Every structure is written in C-alpha cells, then in structure tokens.
Amino acid sequence: MKRWSFLLLFAGFLLGITWLWLFRLSLLPFFISIIATWYGIDRVRYTEAHWKRPQEIIFYELQIDKGGWRLSTDSLRIKLDISRKIQIRRGTLEAILSSPTKSALAERDFSSYPLLRALRLLSSIDTLEWQELCLPQDFELSLLKEGDTCRFILSRAGSLIRGVAEIKASSVNFSLQRGSYRTAKGDYMSWEQMEGFVEAQPMEILMEVCAQQLTIYHRYLAQRVLGYSQVGLYIHGKAEKDTLRLQIDPLLLPLTARLSVWGHKRGAPLYLRLQVPAQSHQAYIQAFPKGFLTCLSEATLGGTSALDLFLQYDPKLEDTLEMRVDWRPAGFAIYHWGGRNPLTLRESFLYQPYASNRLLWIGPESPNYLSFYQITPYVLHAVLHSEDGIFFYHEGFQKERFLKALLENWRCRCFRRGAGTITMQLVRNLLLTREKTLARKVEEILLTALIERFRLLSKQRIAELYLNIVEWGPEIYGLTEAARFYFGKEPHELTIPEAIFLGMLLPSPKAYLFFVDKERGCALPNLKTHFQTIARFLVLQNYLAADSVEAIIPERVCLQPPAWSLPPSLN
Which of 105, 266, 552, 563 could covalently link to 486 via disulfide, CB atoms 3.0 to 4.6 Å apart? Predict the structure, then answer.
C-alpha cells in the first residue's frame, strides 16, 4: 500500500511539473506579480515572453515602472540561478526620472529618492552585463557588474566617462579615468582623474569628489577655459525634523570655506550662508580657477580677510531678498600689481572705448579733459541722480538695487540687470571687459570693494574719470564732446535744463532722439516731471534756489547740429 501511495505521489509530482512547464507562460504573470511585490515595483508590462530553458527567460518590449523611474527595453534575457545572476546582452533603455515623491519630501528621507533606490536595487544583483545600452540624449552605456564591482563606459559624441564603482546597499565608491563631458551647446568639462564616494542613510547623505587637472568651459561662467590642477568638494546633507540642511566644503584649495544652505518645508524661507575664516588675500585669489580672474590675477596682496555672507529668500515674498555681509579685512597691502590696475588710474592713460576704434588720452594732456573741479555741478548732480544718487555716501554698492538685480537675473537665468554703481561701471569700462559672465561680475564686485574700502581711488577721482569716459552718444565720449555735440557749447556754458537733459540720457544716450520733438528738436514737454525732480535734488544740494524749480522745464532745451538738424520740410 505504501509502495502504491509513493508511486501515485511521484506520478502526481511529475504531472504537476509537466503541467507547470506546459503552462509556464500562462503562469508567468503570476510569478512576476510576486517578484514585483518583493521589490516594490509598481507595474510590469511586456508584449511577448520566451521561456527557452527552466533557468532562462527572454522578454520582448519590456517596461518596468518603479517610483519615478521607467525602464523600457526591446529585449531582456534573464538567467536565474542561486546567485541571482542576470545577463542583459543588448537593449534600448528609456529612463524617465521624476521628482521625489511628496512623502519623501515631507519626511526628508534621502533613501526614498529614485537614484538611491536604483542603487539599492543594483547592489542586490550579483552579476549584470549590459552592452550598447541607449540612454536619453544619445548616450550609450556598457557595464559589467560582478559582485560589488561595476565597470562602466558612458559615451556620446564629444563625451566619454569610464571608470569603476564599488556599489553597496547604501554607498558607492567610484573612480573615473581620464574623460570628458560635453553638452549640445558646446559647454564641456574634462579631467585626468576623478574619484569619490556617495553614502546615503534615511536621514543623511554624504558625498565627496576630487578631481585632478579639471578643465571647465561654460558660456555663462566665462568666455575662456577655466581650470584647476586639483580640486574637490565635500557635501553633507542632513534632515532634521522639518529642516533640510546642506553643507558644502571645498577641498584641495588654499582657502578654507563653508557654504551652508537650509530650508524648511516647501514654501518656507530658504537660507544661504558663506563663512570664510580669516585668511590671506592671496588665498582668496588662488582659490578661483585659473583663468577666472583677469585684473586681480596680476596682483600680489598682503593682509588677511574674514567673510561672513548671509542670504534669505522667502518664496511668499517674491520681490524680497535679505542679505547681510560682514567683511573684516586686516593689514591690507599691495606688494605688486601688474598690467592695468586701479593704481594706474591715478595717472594719465590711454583708453579705447568698447566696440570703438578710437583711442582717448585720459588726462590733463588732452584738451577735452575736465578735472573734477572743472565739471559743472549741475551736470555732476544730474548724472548722479540718474545713475547713482548716493554715490558719495556708499562704499561701492547700492544694496537694494543689487538684490533686485540678483533676483531678476536668477528668475530669467540670464544677465539682464547689473545694478552697477558709478564705481562698478568705471571698473567694468577701464579694468575689465563687457562680457556678460559670472566671472566678470564677480571680479567687478571684488575690485569695487577693494577700491572703495581701501581708497585706492578717491570719490572725486572716480567721478572725474567717469564723466570723461562715459559714452554720451554715437562715438561721443566725455562731457566736453557731449556739450559740443548736443548744444554746440563748452561744458561750463551749459544751462541747468541742458545739464539735466544730458544726465537724463544716461544710460541709453544713443536713443536721445526719442526724447526730443522731431520738428523742433527741443525736449518733449512730458519730461517736465523728471526735470523738476532733478531740480528739487539740486535745491537740496544748495545749487538752485527753491523758487526757480518751476522755471526748469524741458522746452528750454533745444538741440543743435550735429545732434539735430531741421527736417527737409522746414529747410
């Protein structure tokens, strides 16, 4: 009896195995649903499956959705054994990365981010081979993972990234060989060697990357190639209750600094703080990549500086940005400064205006040059009111204008506004270039701070130079040429309305015809409010009697040749 029972049980087992094998494709969705549940996969779709051997399955047009990721491949061959070996020979991958889930953002759980979930899944696979994998933006990926070690090559026209990574459940150590990355717009980055690690925990993430012979070009960064012989970054992200804090420290640089960014839940204020302990001024200069600075790269400075910069932005108040700067220099000295620098502006020099073939001698040797005390105060204060009303009272910057420009440029991701004071404009015209890049703007701020803080140039000298070089029309530079071009007069002969008109033309002097009547050549009557606003400003400066304001009207300003000539109909 026992023998027959055993035979019947064995026969039933064989029939069951045979039934499972014959109907294996029909039962495959059931097995896949169980595996998907184990790995937290949202959805699995495929058009056809081929089960060649018990341990090998081929899927065609497979699509897997998990969180914010989507994996699509035209063919996927899976070999199953006790080591969970998976081999993928060829395929096309379409990866769609979405933002982290709302729950992950609310809990500040770094391990919930799609990239880290993908790394955790990858670490659970013992062997993975993928050749000629097509990624978005025409990238191709080949990789071979054996145990914890993964060798990979990521390539595209002009880009080559290859290296080795050690992948574990919550960390990745990587080493990249000589490679480069290039965008479709021509920006690129290259390196001789790059290595680092990423370590993620539920409420904390650590990252460090160091590079040798790093070269960078980006059209918004600078109009030249920048480079470091060695540089690194250490990034520490930490979630504390409702606060997400990010700390960034530079590595392998002569300057020690720390950048901290933190914020609360979405819609709450965002904070940024840059802290630099007291270090030599040369350390500041050498911390920038080679090619970033132009004028300052020629300087050898003495002394030290400590910097503490704080920014606060509240998304609920879109037009407000709070900034505090604590700059503490000590023992400032100039040991050497080659090339054109602020000290050379104390004497006479040759100046070639931007986009012009003219060469102007800026100094008393030129018959058109005006010293500060030869400049009529009406023109001086009219220009100050239009360009920089508190020029004699600030240290190179107007905070409110600067912050508004910073916000506007951030929103448009461009350089739309500069918020330049007269000192900043002078630095840009005489010491730097007109390129609209971050490098030029940063150096402009640094030079302005040095000139104003350490009185490398006096306020009178700055105003004097500005009024002798400023462009006042088509190929018209300086107050003397402007007075002759518009009114056929010498600067000291200008009336108060004419001086106000000249000040009003800045910063768009080439469009002066928009401010005059086309038939008579006199200033438009609707400019009266502007004229009398500046007239009241002159009253406050004790250059005009209060009862004379009503007499300052635009109709008293009429252009003369060559700025304006009679229309043909009136000749």
Answer: 563
| Residue found by looking up tokens 């023109």 in the block | 379
> Which tokens hold the place of 408?
């506007």
pTM over 0.85: no
- Measured at the CA of 278, the angle between CA 311 and CA 206, to 5 degrees, comes to 60
Residue listed under structure tokens 């990926």: 141
| Token output for 43 | 């959805």
Written as one letter, the residue type at 472 is: W
Chain centre distance of CA 347:
37
Using an 8 Å Cβ cutoff, are 172 and 198 in contact?
A: yes
With contact defined as beta carbons under 8 Å apart, do 23 and 51 qualify? no
The separation between the first and the last C-alpha atoms of the chain, rounded to the nearest angstrom, is 133
For tokens 């056809």, the residue is: 48
Residue 263: is its pLDDT beyond 90?
no
Domains along the sequence of the chain with CATH = 266-336 (no CATH), 342-570 (1.10.3810.10)
> One-letter amino acid identity for 246?
L
Exposed/middle/buried for 108, CB within 10 Å: 0-12, 13-18, 19+? buried
The three-state DSSP-derived secondary structure of 446-495 is HHHHHHHHCCCCCHHHHHHHHHHHCEEECCEEHHHHHHHHHHCCCHHHCC
